[in-house]
Structures are given as structure tokens and as C-alpha cells.
Amino acid sequence: MPGKILNLGCGVKTSPLCINIDWSLWIRISRNPLLKRVAEMALDDSRRSKLTKLADKPIMAHDLKKGIPFADNSVDGVYHSHLLEHIDRPIASVFLMEVKRVLKPGGVHRIAVPDLERLARNYLSDFSNGHPHLDWHQHDDKIEEMIDQMVRRESVGTRQFRPLRKKIETLFIGDARRRGETHQWMYDRINLPGLLRDLGFREVAVMDYRSSRIPRWEEIGLDFTDDRSGEYKTDSLYVECIK
Q1: Are the C-beta atoms of residues 29 and 101 closer than 8 Å to each other?
Q2: How many angstroms separate the CA atoms of 155 and 54, rounded?
Q3: Spatial separation of the C-alpha atoms in residues 107 and 5, rounded to whole Å
Q4: Max CA-CA distance within the chain?
Q5: CB 149 within 8 A of CB 235
């Protein structure tokens, strides 16, 4: 076994070799028999399928705003993917120090976040040769990749709904920010390693999705597609550090 590895904010991407932890709305509904029954009657097919899939996964339902539910120096590794950017910038350091608390000395902390540098280079490529005949819609798509999750208010889950249903769901569940969908900050290969070093982590390194200091990483599979044929989230920056 690779040791005790936490997969924080896992969503649907879990591994049987990890302790998978999440607190999404769907996790909470799937763990509550009454809410699950009501939701199954009210949801469309795609959401009902998602709820069923989550109910069958080994996920610990826990709100990470209350800390990580493990003792000091008790875990061998902590992984989180596309989670840190959803945490308010002043709170990010608090969260990272909580990760440091639960890690054993020498434990591995692996982070995957959207790579701001990659998104910015993709955007700027439209200006490199003038592109006089570039479709502005395609260019706008690149801007959307960079800032959509920072500025939008509407949840992805309500986009296909009619106005009345959209208004009712937003009233009860909230908009994109209240649901935790929006990005509160962005990271690259300069500011994320710098933040980790300032917090006392050592041996900070940018990694590939295939390589990790966590044993049996490919078998764990969290940065791989389900069939292990490629990268799960291709816009990612991977950074590891040691406690």
C-alpha cells in the first residue's frame, strides 16, 4: 500500500487506495436517505445518474472548512486537485497549514491547479502573428477559459433550465459562488511554489501528471483518465512538496 493518502475535495474522482473526502451538495444529498429520495424525483436524468454514482463511491462526507479530520503527523500524503483556487486567497495559507499539520514528517503534499501561465500563453498566442482573419468567437473562448469561473454568477448546473426553475433552484441552493464553483485566485509555477516555501514546506518541485513522490502513483490514478491512457485535467499545473 502507498500509505495513508488523503484525496481532499475529491468530487467523483476517487481511488480505492486513498481516503476520499468531499463536502459537495451532491455528496450531502447522497448520504441523506430523505434528501436523496426527494432529489431522485425532482432531478433530470443526468443529475440523477451523478447522484447514483456518488452514492456508490467510498467518500467521507466532511466540510474541510472545519479542518482535516485527522490527527497531527498521521498521514503519509495529501492530494487535492482543482480545489485550492476555489479557496479565498487569505484562507489558502490556513488550509495549506492544515495539510502540513496532518502530514507526517517527510510526507508528500501534491497539488493540482489550473495553470494560469498555460491559459495566458494560449490567450496571447492570438496576438503573436496578428491573426487578421481570426474568428473573434474563438478568441473569446480563450478569454472564457481564463476568467469564466472568476466572474460568472450562474451555476453550470442551472444553465439548461427554464427561467422559473433556474430562479427557484438558485434561491434555495445559491449561485455559482455560493456553491463553491468560482475561482478565488489563480496559480502558476512561480507563485504556488513560493507560497509553499513561505509556509515551511521543503523540496518544492513542479511535476508531470505521471510522476510523483507518492508511491504507486499511476496505480492510484488520480491525475490519469479512468483507462490510464492520458491526463485527466489537461490544463493543470502539478506541484509537490515535502513536510
Answers
A1: no
A2: 20
A3: 10
A4: 59
A5: no
What domains are defined for the chain? 5-23+62-115+187-242 (3.40.50.150)
Q: How far apart are CA 15 and CA 190, in angstroms?
A: 30
Q: Are 206 and 237 in contact (CB under 8 A)?
A: yes
Comparing 31-35, 207-211, 233-237, which segment has the lowest mean pLDDT? 31-35
Q: Is the full-model pTM beyond 0.70? A: yes
The number of angstroms, rounded, from the C-alpha of 158 to the middle of its chain's C-alpha atoms is 20
Report the 10 Å Cβ neighbour count for 159. Answer: 9
103 pairs with which residues across the strands? 75
- Dump pLDDT digits (tens) for 68-99: 999 999 999 999 999 999 999 999 999 999 99
Q: Which residue has the cell 503519509?
A: 76
